[in-house]
Amino acid sequence: MAYLIDSDVMVDFTRGNAKAADYLDSLGDDCRLSAITGLELIAGARNQREVTDLDILISAYEQIPPTDDVSRRAYCLMKTHAKSAGLGTLDALIAATAIENGFTLVSKNRKHFQMIGSLDLEVPSY
């Protein structure tokens, strides 16, 4: 199974959460990041040193860019779920990346994604 790791899980890992690290290890080598997740991580950095450290971490994963198909899917997700369920733009792009590439999205933010029926979502219990 191929996994797309959401920002919140990566943040837990970068903050030294041993359970998050163990969880990521349990998934094996078939983990990727949306390019959007990489952007979110860099945006959350507190200083240039963190940017450098995050860049090293992010580069260890294959990053999946938003293609035309991903953008179209994200648009449809936004039309359906933005107002009714509060789906955000970046979350729509991340979910669309998972759907279009056949990945299971790994996120602790069930409420951000649970309304998307076509999304294979795994919520870690760590």
Question: Would you kindly provide a brief summary of this structure?
Answer:
This protein is of the alpha/beta class. The protein contains seven helices and five strands.
CATH classification class: Alpha Beta
Radius of gyration equals 14 Å
Binned, the helix content reads 55-70%
CATH fold-level label: Rossmann fold
- Please identify the structural class as seen in this structure: alpha/beta
Identify the CATH architecture: 3-Layer(aba) Sandwich
Strand content: 5-15%
Q: Sketch the major β-sheet.
A: 5 strands, parallel
Q: How many strands in all?
A: 5
Query: Based on CA inertia axes, which overall geometry fits?
Result: globular
CATH superfamily: 5'-nuclease
Mean pLDDT: 97
Please explain how this structure is put together:
Helix content is 58%, strand content 12%. With 126 residues, the protein is of the alpha/beta class. The protein has a single domain (3-122), classed as 3-Layer(aba) Sandwich (Rossmann fold), CATH 3.40.50. A five-stranded parallel beta sheet has the order 3-2-1-4-5. Helix 7 links the parallel strand 4 (104-106) and strand 5. Helix 1 packs across helix 2 (18-26) and helix 5 crosses helix 6. The longest helix is centred in the middle third of the chain and has 18 residues, at 68-85. The mean pLDDT is 97.
